């Protein structure tokens, strides 16, 4: 398909990616004790990722990262992807997530 000027793209979302940091620094090893890594963390919110994988090359094309994933976000993502090669044909393979417009 790529030789014919058609991009075959697999599109997927990762929702609710958490931005975390440790609440306290890791304590270094000292003689007789192991290194101690803090288990508590501070949550800094979440983001959503929409990414396209070009099936022919395995490359990610125009990923979108944002605070949410609505139909409008999905449409903008597809539009920005098509804008990378507007003269080509595009085939998008998507799952049945509720934000994909019919």
Write a structural description:
The protein is mainly beta and 102 residues long. It has a domain at 2-17 and 48-93. The chain has one helix and four strands. The protein has one helix at 71-82; strands at 6-22, 41-54, 60-66, 89-93. A four-stranded mixed β-sheet has the order 3-2-1-4. It is elongated. Residues 9-100 form the Tc1-like transposase DDE domain.
Share of residues in strands: 35-45%
Poorly predicted regions: none
**How many distinct beta strands?**
4
Alpha carbon gyration radius: 20 Å
- The shape is elongated
H-E string:
EEEHE
Largest beta sheet: strand ordering: 3-2-1-4
Helical proportion?
Answer: 10-25%
Would you tell me the structural class of the helices and strands?
mainly beta
Q: Report on the biggest sheet.
A: 4 strands, mixed
For the termini, the CA-CA separation is: 24 Å
**Oligomeric organization of the protein chains:** single chain
Roughly what is the average pLDDT, rounded to an integer?
87
Question: Can you count the helices?
Answer: 1
Organism: Laspinema palackyanum D2a
Domain Tc1-like transposase DDE: 9-100
Protein name: Transposase
InterPro entries: Tc1-like_DDE_dom
């Amino acid at each position: 398909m790529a030789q014919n000027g058609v991009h075959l793209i697999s599109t997927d979302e990762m929702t609710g990616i958490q931005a975390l940091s440790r609440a306290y620094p890791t304590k270094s090893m000292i003689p007789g004790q192991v290194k101690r890594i803090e288990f508590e963390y501070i949550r800094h919110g979440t983001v959503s990722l929409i990414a396209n994988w070009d099936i022919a090359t395995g490359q990610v094309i125009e990923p979108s990262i944002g605070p949410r994933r609505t139909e409008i976000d999905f449409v903008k993502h597809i539009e920005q992807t098509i804008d990378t090669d507007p003269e080509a044909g595009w085939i998008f393979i998507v799952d049945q997530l509720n934000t994909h417009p019919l």
